Amino acid sequence: MSSPALNQQTIPPQPKNGPAREALPSGSVVIDNVSKRFRKHTLQRKSYTTVKSSILEKIFKSRYPRNNYIAALNSISLNVAPGASVGLIGRNGSGKSTLLKLISGIYRPDSGSVKVQGRISALIELGAGFHPDFSGRENIYLGGVMYGLTRREIDQKFDTIVQYAELEDFIDDPVRTYSSGMYMRLGFSLAVHTEPDILLVDEVLAVGDAGFIHRCHETISEFRRRGKTMIFVTHDLDSVARWCDEAIWLDKGNVKDRGEPRRVIDNYLLGVEEKEELELEERNRLSAGIPSAVAEQLTEDLSSAARLGELNVAEDPTAPGKWGNGEVEIVSVKMLDGAGEAKWIFHAEEQTTVEVEFVVHEEVPELVFGIGILRADGICAHGTNTDIEGLEVPLPTATQPGAKPRGVFRFVIERLGLLDDAYFIDVALHRKDGTPYDYHHCKYKFFVRGARRYHGIYAPPHHWEFGELK
Amino acid sequence: MFRNLTELWRFRALVWALVGRHLRARYRGSLLGFVWSFLNPLCLIAVYSLVFSYYMRATDVDNYPLFLFAGLLPWIWFSSGLLEATAAISSGGSLITKAMFPPHILPVVSVLTNLANFIFAIPLLLGFMLLSGMMPGVGLVVLPVVILIELVFLVGLGLMFSALNVHFRDIQHILGNLLTLLFFLCPIVYPVTNVPERFRFTLVLNPVASFTQMYHDIFLKGTFPQLSVLLIALCVSLVTFLVGNLVFNRYRESFAELV
User: Fold this and answer.
1) How far is the C-alpha of A118 from the C-alpha of A15, rounded, in Å?
2) Which of A184, A381, B182, B244 could form a disulfide with B159 if both were Cys (CB 3.0 to 4.6 A apart)?
3) Which member of A49, A108, A128 has the closest CB to residue B95?
4) Nearest-CA distance from A260 to chain B in Å?
């Protein structure tokens, strides 16, 4: 349903003075087959060319290879219609910001063309160009002029800008005395009040307190309603889903997928998961066998710490460690999904099994299995062991005479019920009095994905009921 | 080149505001504030007068401090303007890398800021002259023309060096030393007559020296500068401006990546 106010608020396209360009409707961005590469040393900020190296380069071409380039964007084409909102997503270094800088004209493409019609406001770095020694007032005028406003236009908008940034009391103080939040708010307020036709936003919406963020979001929605073109670069996938008509997934400078935001985001998450899965597997494999020096020092405190969930390791509760007297040894730890598939990323609703294989080196009187689930910040989400639950663990016996007895236990969680985050698994084998045989603390990391945006640390199985009181 | 000029014109309000901001920023927080823009050249003049006219007795110019003053003021404009302009883009920071900012404004602002300092000090020079019983002559009429020509010259150099300095950071260091040499190659601390005849040609070949001579003519002699000198300076300035723009445009697209 369109409200009548919507049409009234639509700003007529402003004629842009300046060199004649191809007749594009105001607010459109056309990127045609654009490539951009950087010289490697530029990326590393290692060396500026000096006169010396420039001369040497020419003389000894072989020693100073010139074609040391990194491709940031490969033949990207993109057509943004006036009034459209586009979200660029992708991992770090995928070329999102480079693309934004090309659109804003800060970078020039190596090949291809970028055509932009209309006034651009680029929120690439808020407050870039503010002078610390000058007051907020002076900076508004300078910044406004930089965005191409006349003094009179700034005069008219001045109060709104200040009010929006909530800086009425500080506007005559030098901006170097501003907190970073105030600085950002001023930058944001200025940028959105310059009446751009095209707004480029690079990951800058998380400024200020909750109230200000809320207002940022309102402003963005309003821009959308008023038919401004917007291009976002962000890792906040929710806002892409919320505001964008189209999402573009960039991967290593190529468009990996584009189209309806929800679908592209899902594909992107899936892609990221696959990659993370591989990396995690590698990392967990590496860390399992390596005893940590820190952990060995802690062995003395063990009897008190052994009870899972009460573990209180010195400074960093998530520093991985491994300790115990070694009478029984953990051989492998795996996490399996409902289908028995080993993985390290789970859905919140999924059945999850921790499978632990162990070998008994010395004869032991008893065996207690313990499992702990710790959130990445060290908070224990759950801890239990067979002793707490009153279970007697049967000791494994050797299959052949002379061989050591080996065993396996599985901790089956019917429904994981955790919220999206990174977690560690603690695995312990110990005596009933807490003396550890083998204890792996925070050595195995896994992720939970796809829970709703609940608050807190866990999601109990639940449903809602509604009714009317008669 | 015309793109640079039209953009300069389009952003004239910005240039103006930045010049004002630099002028105020330079002495902000210091006790004497703007007075320093007069005190600095005065101190320099005092030092040079002491050394050259009392210790070394190297000159027979009457009213040596005034002679120094007339040559030193424009020189300070030239040297600090050029040094600041050269570093302007490489130290432009987020303005260049993160904002949509027309880069050639920065060296121009450096040149203009120092020009403003020069112009503010001119009344001081004139007052100094009146105090020592000299009346400013008709030559003063062409002062704006000479300043304008030197401005074109300086902007050309500034554009060129600021762009080159982004790629070759050695430039600003080399330039500092070259300027010291150039200072003593100009008839600022000594009059032209002190230069042996066979070295006079260096003064002709040195555009900065001819500017110094023109300022001497205007302020000290109160006469018009020689037309030939003026015209040569004009041609040199225009060529420098052109070359400066070409060099600048050749490099400007890489600034955001290299700064």
Assistant:
1) 8
2) B244
3) A128
4) 30
CB contact under 8 A, B95 and A19: no
Sign of CA dihedral A205, A209, A215, A221: positive
Question: Residue A7's CB: how many other CB atoms inside 10 A?
Answer: 9
Q: What is the DSSP letter of A14?
A: P
Of B74, B72, B68, the residue nearest B52 (C-alpha): B68
Per-residue pLDDT tens, chain A, 470 aa: give them: 333 333 333 333 333 343 444 567 888 899 998 898 887 654 444 445 556 666 665 555 544 455 577 888 888 888 888 989 999 998 888 888 889 888 888 888 888 889 888 888 888 777 777 877 778 998 898 888 877 788 888 999 999 999 988 888 999 998 889 888 888 888 888 888 888 889 888 876 665 677 788 888 888 888 888 888 999 888 888 788 888 889 999 988 888 888 888 888 888 887 877 777 777 777 766 665 544 444 443 443 443 344 343 444 344 556 677 888 888 999 999 999 888 888 888 888 889 999 999 999 988 889 999 999 998 887 888 999 999 899 998 888 888 888 889 999 999 999 988 888 888 899 999 998 888 899 998 888 888 877 677 888 888 888 999 998 87
Of the candidates A285, A304, A78, the one whose C-alpha atom is nearest the C-alpha of residue A198 is A78
Could you give the residue ranges of the DSSP H alpha helices within B132-217?
Answer: 143-167, 170-185, 200-205, 207-216
Interface residue B253 vs chain A (CB under 8 A): yes
Q: Cβ–Cβ contacts within 10 Å for residue A80, how many?
A: 22
Residue type (1 letter), B72: L
The Cβ of residue A333 has, within 10 Å, a number of other Cβ atoms equal to: 19
Q: Where are the alpha helices (DSSP H) in A289-358?
A: 293-297, 302-305
**DSSP-derived 3-state class of residue A356:** strand
Within the 103-142 window of chain A, which residues sit less than 8 Å (CB to CB) from chain B?
Answer: 104-108, 120, 122, 124-125, 128-129, 131, 133-134, 138, 141-142
Q: What are the tens digits of pLDDT across the range B160-206?
A: 999 999 988 889 899 999 999 999 999 998 888 888 888 888 888 89
* Closest CA of chain B from A132, distance in Å: 10
The nearest alpha carbon in chain A to B258 belongs to A42
d(CA A267, CA A264): 5
Per the CB < 8 A criterion, the answer to whether A193 and A155 are in contact is: no
Q: Which tokens sit at A167?
A: 């800086």
CB A330 within 8 A of CB A440: yes
Question: Is A262 in CB contact (< 8 Å) with chain B?
Answer: no
Query: Which of A51, A129, A131 shows the shortest C-beta gap to B101?
Result: A129
Could you tell me whether strands A368-375 and A380-385 are parallel, antiparallel, or unpaired per DSSP bridges? Answer: antiparallel
Q: Which residues of A touch B170 (CB under 8 A)?
A: 50-52
- What is residue A209's DSSP assignment? -
Q: Which residues does residue A79 pair with via DSSP β-bridges, in sequence order?
A: A30
Q: SS3 for A150? A: coil
Q: Do B25 and A134 touch (CB under 8 A)?
A: yes
Q: Which residue of A has its CA nearest to B97?
A: A106
